[in-house]
From TrEMBL:
<keyword id="KW-0687">Ribonucleoprotein</keyword>
<keyword id="KW-0479">Metal-binding</keyword>
<dbReference type="GO" id="GO:0005737">
    <property type="term" value="C:cytoplasm"/>
</dbReference>
<comment type="similarity">
    <text>In the C-terminal section; belongs to the RimK family.</text>
</comment>
<dbReference type="Pfam" id="PF18030">
    <property type="entry name" value="Rimk_N"/>
</dbReference>
<feature type="region of interest" description="Disordered">
    <location>
        <begin position="451"/>
        <end position="470"/>
    </location>
</feature>
<dbReference type="GO" id="GO:0046872">
    <property type="term" value="F:metal ion binding"/>
</dbReference>
<dbReference type="InterPro" id="IPR041107">
    <property type="entry name" value="Rimk_N"/>
</dbReference>
<dbReference type="InterPro" id="IPR013651">
    <property type="entry name" value="ATP-grasp_RimK-type"/>
</dbReference>
<dbReference type="InterPro" id="IPR013815">
    <property type="entry name" value="ATP_grasp_subdomain_1"/>
</dbReference>
<keyword id="KW-0464">Manganese</keyword>
<keyword id="KW-0648">Protein biosynthesis</keyword>
<keyword id="KW-0436">Ligase</keyword>
<keyword id="KW-0689">Ribosomal protein</keyword>
<dbReference type="InterPro" id="IPR021109">
    <property type="entry name" value="Peptidase_aspartic_dom_sf"/>
</dbReference>
<keyword id="KW-0547">Nucleotide-binding</keyword>
<dbReference type="GO" id="GO:0018169">
    <property type="term" value="F:ribosomal S6-glutamic acid ligase activity"/>
</dbReference>
């Protein structure tokens, strides 16, 4: 009687194989093949569910290389099911079930797998019989019948774009249900992410060296992939403390605490721009009332702008058309013990300025703002109007350099057109989106979310420690 012939179309699997899960951003894993198990399993830690009840998702960390707990990949996937799984030692565990493409060599197919802690096992994945289907033959005494991979992929840039469709968990720090907040939530959810609005003042912090945490309404906040701060001027100190806590945890913050603080302190902001050689109106600052005349001489002749350091949306900004008027305003501010700047008035701007919105180091939109009749301030909150404008290369470069100086991922840079080139007035770390989206008809919120995606997805933790041989 002749021996049965092996089907040449079947894939040969040993008891251990190299596989990849491209949907999860895992380009190389060792998987143990176990036909005695029905369901496949993937090593996962810090498992958290998120998203809506109707479309739940799960976020988890994978340590793909045994013995390298410092190298972690953040993954997320849609929850397919929850299933009770009984291990070989008789213990039962409720697990999330997800689905992903499984790639072996040049072939791939979709499988389901449960999430569980396999940190004590050398193989970070177990392939059960459901995943093997009918096109695999098992060679139980051999390993690596398919092409070998290498853990070295986790030290290269390739892994940065390995999971382009990963759903992110994003928090918007905001106390207001306004247009900008709603648009960010809408844009994020449209791109498949879960976006939660967190009231900054309801956050409180556990500060310690081992496990710094942010708590909210009596519970520890989950781990977010990204935080988008929308910190109001009245809560700058506490708001930046909350952002700093997220930075300590290791969460990507679109705008960092240092940049927000620098943008809110107008004196520091002007000093920072001066350090980076960014054009701005001549500016002077002094604390002694004896220096009023010298202060005036530093910025030039009247008219001048007198501006409170804490001013926002055009409030606390006064145009003094004569030297005497300027002295009166300065005396009044000093009487209130208020800190202020004196600034040259750029006459040729004629009550207009340009708002450039910078996202990820690029100007994505710009508009010209014109003040209301009889008002030199062009703020839209004060009745000004806006229209789309084409900016020059010099203006674009000034806006980008200003945002970079403050290290802001999202910035509204206000500048004036002067005879000697663009002059940056202010860098706003929480720019409103309504005016510029209305004027330009551009989806700025979507571009913000695209930048968040590209910034978050480089997930591996680098280390000088060598990876184990394959």
């Amino acid at each position: 009687m002749s021996e049965p012939q092996e089907n040449p179309d079947l894939l040969r699997f040993g008891w251990e194989e190299w596989v990849s899960l491209p949907d999860l951003g895992l380009p190389a894993l060792k998987a143990k093949v176990d036909t005695g198990a029905r369901t496949s399993a993937l090593h996962a830690s810090d498992i958290e569910s998120f998203g809506s009840i109707n479309a739940p998702k799960v976020r988890f960390m994978v340590h793909p290389v045994p013995g390298r707990e410092d190298l972690a990949i953040a993954c997320s996937a849609r929850v397919v099911d929850r299933r009770t799984v009984t291990s070989s030692n008789g213990e039962s565990e409720q697990r999330y079930v997800i689905a992903s493409a499984l790639r072996v060599g040049d072939q791939s197919w979709r499988i389901e797998m449960t999430l569980t802690d396999r940190s004590s096992m050398n193989s970070r994945m177990l392939l059960g019989r459901e995943a093997l289907k009918d096109h695999i033959t098992i060679v139980a005494t051999e390993r690596y019948q398919q092409p070998r991979l290498s853990y070295d992929v986790y030290t290269t840039a390739k892994v940065r774009t390995a999971a382009p469709n990963r759903s992110l968990r994003i928090a918007v720090l905001s106390r207001e249900d306004n247009y900008s907040t709603r648009r960010l939530v809408e844009a994020g959810e449209k791109r498949g992410h879960s976006v939660e609005v967190i009231d900054t003042l309801r956050c409180y912090m556990a500060i310690n060296a081992l496990a710094p945490e942010v708590h909210y309404d009596g519970k520890r906040l989950p781990r977010y992939d990204a935080v988008i701060p929308r910190i109001g001027a009245t809560i700058t100190s506490y708001g930046t403390a909350v952002v700093r806590q997220f930075e300590t945890i290791g969460t990507f913050c679109l705008n960092g605490s240092d940049g927000i603080l620098a943008s809110r302190d107008k004196l520091f902001a002007h000093q920072l721009m001066a350090r980076h050689r960014i054009g701005m109106p001549n500016t002077a600052f002094a604390s002694s009332p004896k220096d009023t005349d010298s202060l005036m001489r530093l910025v030039g002749n009247a008219p001048v702008i007198v501006k409170l350091l804490e001013s926002t949306q055009g409030k606390g900004v006064v145009l003094a058309e004569t030297k005497k008027a300027a002295q009166s305003v300065i005396d009044a501010f000093r009487g209130l013990k208020a800190n202020f700047l004196v600034q040259d008035f750029v006459k040729e701007s004629a009550g207009e300025d340009i708002r450039c919105l910078v996202v990820g180091g690029k100007v994505v939109a710009s508009m010209k703002r014109t003040g209301a009749e009889g008002d030199f301030r062009s703020n839209l909150h004060r009745g000004g109007s806006a229209k789309v404008v084409r900016i020059t290369r010099e203006e674009r470069e000034a806006a980008v350099r200003a945002a970079r100086a403050f290290r802001l991922g999202l910035a509204g840079v206000d500048l004036l057109r002067s005879d000697s080139g663009p002059k940056v007035l202010e860098v706003n770390s929480s720019p409103g989106l309504e005016g510029i989206e209305t004027a330009t008809h551009k989806d700025i919120a979507d571009q913000v979310m695209a930048h968040v995606e590209s910034s978050v997805r480089p997930t591996p933790v680098r280390s000088r420690k060598a990876l184990p041989d394959a």
